[in-house]
Amino acid sequence: MPMDVTSARLRRLDFVTRTACPGCGATGAHPLWSGRFSDVDVADHLAQFHYSADLSAELGDQPIDLVACTACGLAYHRLILS
Predict the structure, then answer these.
(1) Tens-digit pLDDT profile for the chain (82 aa)?
(2) Could you tell me which residues are beta bridge partners of residue 77?
(3) Do residues 80 and 16 lie in contact, with contact meaning Cβ atoms separated by under 8 Å?
(4) Rounded to an integer, what distance in angstroms lies between the CA atom of residue 46 and that of residue 66?
């Protein structure tokens, strides 16, 4: 049975966890917001404002963690595509 394209794409997505602030390099961060790409509000926002592709098929139920650096205050995504 042939592999469907969506399954093949999901296997290629690889998220890595940032262990330090991309701005100053400090390792301390506190959570601002957590969710998933499959959350209705997130999926609707991405579909309406940012992308023409079907991101729900690409990102599925991957988590989103927005954190703030405890040293410089920069807000950033802890989990990013590699």
Answers:
(1) 344 544 445 456 788 999 999 999 999 999 999 999 889 988 888 888 766 667 777 788 889 999 999 999 999 999 998 8
(2) 66
(3) yes
(4) 16
Single out the residue of 32, 81, 33, 82 nearest to residue 59, CA to CA.
Answer: 81
| pTM of the model as a whole | 0.74
Q: Within 10 A of 58 (CB to CB), how many other CB atoms are there?
A: 15
Tell me the domain boundaries of the chain.
5-81
The CA distance from 82 to 61, in Å, is 17
H or E stretch at 41: helix 40-49
